[in-house]
Backbone:
DNA sequence: TATTGTTATACTCTATAACTATA
DNA sequence: TATAGTTATAGAGTATAACAATA
């Protein structure tokens, strides 16, 4: 009755990633609400901590979000002094976005508060496995795609299967 | 300049998971569209392949989606004969949901078509690392939470940090 | 003219409430 | 009365188009 494919090259992580991310996000929402944050805010703060001082468009490219929605997202964070927008002296059209000290502090508090939610969602994994997962996710998200500036390439017609 | 926490117990995978899942989903959408599927459909089909013959409510619990949205989701899949709804003889209120042969076939085709998207998103990882990631995701999503029937517990006030 | 950021708006996804049928 | 599924509908999330400032 094993209908699942056994060849590792047939394994697709997409659906599992979607499923697990949803479960994590649902629990994160209730944990973050008292801190005045939403999961999306945490993703932005995390990216800005890893590499701040970038334009809104570069942030949009990294997060793969539409630039128009970055505006509202940063408005939220700026209203609570978690990030700062400064006009770039080199190109006055650009806003240079950076994490404030308060932002770094709030992010740490949020990560601390999320420990329980993460323990619940990743309950089936041992501590060393969770660390492995974290490392894989970190490396995957800091790859060339996520750091590119305005990549947005269309998916090539890869029918190699 | 290393502002990131170094203690592994401080590592939180939530934001990275969210970020990576989004990138995967955006690429999956364009790949799945010609097959008449959306990322959400693929998650449901994947869960049903792993363990079909369950009620809509159990499916909702596993996917952690509201039961009302499961209706439309299954309507889509049923319209294309990818799943079947049968009244349970034991409790005629229930619909027993199962993957059809066409559904299993379409799922395989979709997974095949997604190879390119996955290669792009997981480009920073080696093949063995991708297999490790797949295994971790599979085990995490088949844990006691995802298989529970109508768990839906509120997040406990875990302030152990 | 092209680009950055902004606003207004339409579209999709998700959740809440009320209904039908079964138990 | 309580539960499984359905429908209708309002709220949140996201994308598209037009505009202002700057290059």
Residues:
């Amino acid at each position: 009755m094993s209908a699942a494919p056994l060849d590792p090259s047939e394994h697709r992580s997409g659906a599992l990633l979607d499923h697990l991310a949803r479960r994590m996000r649902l629990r994160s929402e209730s944990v973050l609400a008292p801190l005045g944050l939403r999961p999306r805010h945490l993703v932005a703060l995390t990216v800005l901590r890893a590499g701040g001082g970038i334009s809104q468009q570069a942030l949009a490219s990294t997060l793969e979000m539409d630039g128009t929605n970055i505006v509202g997202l940063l408005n939220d964070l700026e209203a609570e002094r978690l990030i700062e927008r400064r006009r770039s002296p080199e190109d006055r059209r650009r806003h240079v976005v950076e994490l404030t000290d308060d932002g770094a502090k709030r992010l740490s508090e949020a990560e601390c508060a999320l420990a329980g939610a993460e323990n619940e969602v990743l309950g089936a994994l041992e501590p060393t496995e969770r660390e492995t997962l974290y490392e894989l996710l970190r490396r995957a998200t800091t790859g060339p795609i996520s750091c590119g500036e305005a990549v947005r390439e269309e998916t090539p017609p890869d029918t190699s299967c």
Remarks:
- Helices of chain A lie at 14-32, 39-50, 56-63, 67-79, 101-113, 115-121, 127-141, 144-147.
- Chain A has one domain: 31-143.
- Strands of chain A lie at 54-55, 83-87, 95-99.
- The two ends of chain A are 24 Å apart (CA to CA).
